[in-house]
User: What shape does this take?
Amino acid sequence: MTFRTPRLTVAVFVVTLAVTMMQLVWPEVLPALRRQPSMIAGGEVWRFVSAWLVHDEGVRQVAFNLTALAIAGTLIEFMLGGAAWLIAYVGAGLAGEISGIFWQPVGAGNSVAVCGLIGALAAWQVMRRDIPVIARLVFPPVCFAGALVLVVSSDIHGPPLLVGGAVGWASKTLGGKGRNGLA
Assistant: This one.
């Protein structure tokens, strides 16, 4: 078996880490890139994506989000391929940011985009027959039940989990096998 670098995951990880580190040196980077209501009125729609590059809750948020990106991103890139990865990350991230305008108007972090990868991973896992039944009966139901609870609670992470799940399902169902025939 040959190890291949998950290029998309590594690229997004490095760019996110670099911009997040920049905000430590130049604190004005955070307010310039985060999600906030005035962004729509001011025509700054790019903030729907730039908010994923900075983090407003400190080191714990950065550590969790980048670890989740590395794990879920690598798995999805290998199991479903780069196209599904990109659609899950961007689609879920946008779903989270749009929810954020209503439920959490000011914020930053890539957790909403990473939730798309986690949702895709849960959908991929539930459809695999070569994974032990107990594994298919634990993570995916917990993930999607949690997503529904988050939506009902007006938490911006619920919609991205569901979007990611839809991408994972569509990729597996409509696209057949992913890279290496692993999907």
